[in-house]
Specification:
The complex is a heterodimer of chains A (253) and B (281). Chain A has 253 residues and is α/β, with parallel strands linked by helices. Chain A is built from eleven helices and ten strands. The radius of gyration of chain B is 23 Å and the shape is globular. Classes of the chains: A alpha/beta (253), B mainly alpha (281). At the A-B interface, helix 2, helix 4 and helix 7 of A face helix 7 and helix 8 of B.
């Protein structure tokens, strides 16, 4: 059996805000159609790592990065890569649901297509993405209602549907369930299981049980250092590093 | 006296004091409305809105040319001031963190504090003196100078109120930065900006001082920008300072018309603002 090809390969990534280096050299591979969970205490560089993958990190004034990040063996940071194009291939879901308040539910889903001038009325895309995000049955009768009328959990699934509509290959999720109640969290986690059939997913989470439930591989960041990464089961049951064991067993962090 | 009774008494006293303060603040507004309506409503008729002013002692006549002149000059001023004010505000919100941005912000603040009569003198010096005539253009320029600073500041506020997470959401969908600014950030701030624009228009419509020696006045209809032009405010002023009692009555009626015009603009601005609240809640 062939080993799964690596969708993403990161080699010696450093990232900084001004003079403050927040990732001190991280290397890891993410196989295609798998879920990587990134865990670690606040301020350890998890979110920055994620934002380097779709080049959102560099939008902050003074922020920058070095090292190699390959997507399908091509350097994300090559001069020939347009970051705007890249972000259509690498979608992102944020910590807090952020639907566009001026748009209806349906128009939120199709926003990426409409704003990028993809022709058509997108009704099929809207339905497909809302079904994929397990939201269709709850909103199919009010697609033209404002998106802000939805509950927090529904808004977050709407944002996932919106990210799926531009047909990305990779989906980055920055603590997508941290603002949600347990029921909505379970829905989002079920969704991640569904989505990994088609997408490569990288999820940042503070919730260790969540990381154990949803991911194939886990990476542990501490103080800007990638301490350890590997199969999720190994990280949680038999980690190589003492610091990883201390963190996953709750001794600190 | 128990502690509870004492607390209740203190509470009742201060509630009453706050209520009295509200009444005191409302008294001038109520008496103003009462005076203008009671003295002005008698002179209102269709003719008053459509006819030219009548000479002293002659019955009838209206302020049609003054209403048209106010709308004309405010319209001319808006043509320049709305894009300039909104554009400056968007610039300040998006790129205004540097030294140039601070300079622009400081300038708008100073300009916003300049008395309107001074702005009138500036327009007089800039346009009336070289053109050797009073004109609608000079009046419109004076009004435009007054409209830009508050509009720029409130536009900046409304654009800054748009959460950064919306901008990120759009960028993360692969939408270019300029389109994100236009279709997401500005679109979200639009109701607020429209409200600010309407308030600026309403404020300009109520100005007298900058028009006194720029547009002057005109007894007839005028559509040419290089001619003196009537306005409701200057007409009210002229009627009010005249020695004739029938002109005094007309001043009250014209004041009522102006009040209605400005009130309608404010009402429209309120409705827009309420729409915004409903959508972002």
């Amino acid at each position: 059996m062939d080993a799964p090809a690596n969708k993403i390969s990161v080699q010696g990534l450093k990232a900084w805000f001004g003079k403050n280096e927040v990732i001190h050299g991280a290397s890891l591979d993410i196989p295609d159609r798998s879920v990587l969970a990134i865990i670690g205490p606040s301020g350890c560089g998890k979110s920055t790592f994620l934002r380097c993958l779709n080049r959102m990190h560099e939008l902050t004034p003074g922020a920058g990065s070095s090292g190699k990040m390959l997507l399908d063996d091509r350097d994300l940071y090559a001069a020939s890569v347009d970051p705007v194009e890249l972000r259509r291939r690498v979608g992102m879901v944020f910590q807090r649901p952020n639907p566009f308040p001026t748009m209806s539910i349906a128009r939120n889903v199709s926003a990426g297509l409409r704003l990028n001038r993809v022709p058509g009325d997108h009704a099929e895309v809207v339905e497909r993405c809302l079904r994929q995000a397990a939201l269709w049955d709850e909103v199919k009768d009010r697609l033209d209602a404002p998106a802000t009328g939805l509950s927090g959990g529904q808004q977050q699934r709407l944002c996932i549907a919106r990210a799926l509509a531009v047909e990305p290959e990779v989906l980055l999720m920055d603590e997508p369930a941290s603002a949600l109640d347990p029921i909505a969290t379970a829905k989002v986690e079920d969704l991640i299981h569904e989505l990994k059939q088609r997408y490569t997913i990288v999820i940042v989470t503070h919730n260790m049980q969540q990381a154990a439930r949803v991911s194939d591989r886990t990476a542990f960041f501490y103080l800007g250092e990638l301490v350890e990464s590997g199969p999720t089961e190994k990280i949680f049951t038999n980690p190589s590093e003492q610091r990883t064991e201390d963190y996953v067993t709750g001794k600190f962090g | 006296m128990s502690a509870l009774r004492r607390r209740n008494a203190v509470n009742a006293f201060w509630t009453a004091a706050c209520g009295a303060a509200v009444l005191l603040a409302l008294l001038p507004l109520a008496s103003l409305l009462w005076l203008v309506i009671s003295r002005g409503v008698g002179g209102l008729s269709l003719d008053f809105f459509t006819h030219l002013p009548a000479p002293v002692g002659e019955a009838g006549g209206g302020v049609g040319n003054a209403i048209a002149g106010t709308l004309y000059m405010v319209g001319l001023a808006s043509l320049v001031a709305l894009p300039a004010g909104v554009g400056a505000g968007v610039y300040l919100a998006e790129r205004g963190d540097g030294r140039f941005g601070s300079a622009v912000r400081f300038t708008t603040e100073v300009l916003a504090g300049v008395p309107s009569i001074v702005v009138g003198i500036v327009a007089y010096g800039l346009l009336v003196v070289p053109m050797k005539r009073f004109s609608a253009l000079a009046g419109a320029v004076a009004l435009a100078i007054l409209m830009v600073p508050p509009l720029a500041r409130s536009t900046e506020e409304f654009v800054r109120l748009v959460p950064g997470t919306l901008r990120e959401a759009s960028l993360a969908l692969g939408v270019p930065a300029w389109k994100t600014g236009l279709r997401v950030v500005l679109r979200t701030a639009l109701p607020g900006i429209l409200t600010a624009a309407l308030l600026a228009v309403a404020r300009a419509a109520g100005e007298t001082a900058p028009l006194l020696f720029t547009a002057l006045n005109n007894q007839y209809w005028n559509a040419r920008p290089d001619q003196p032009t009537a306005s409701l405010t200057v007409q009210i002023f002229n009627y009010a300072v005249s020695p004739y009692s029938d002109w005094h009555d007309k001043a009250w009626s014209a004041a009522l018309v102006l009040l209605l015009l400005v009130g309608l603009l404010n009402l429209a601005a309120r409705l827009l603002a309420r729409g915004r609240g409903g959508r972002t809640a």
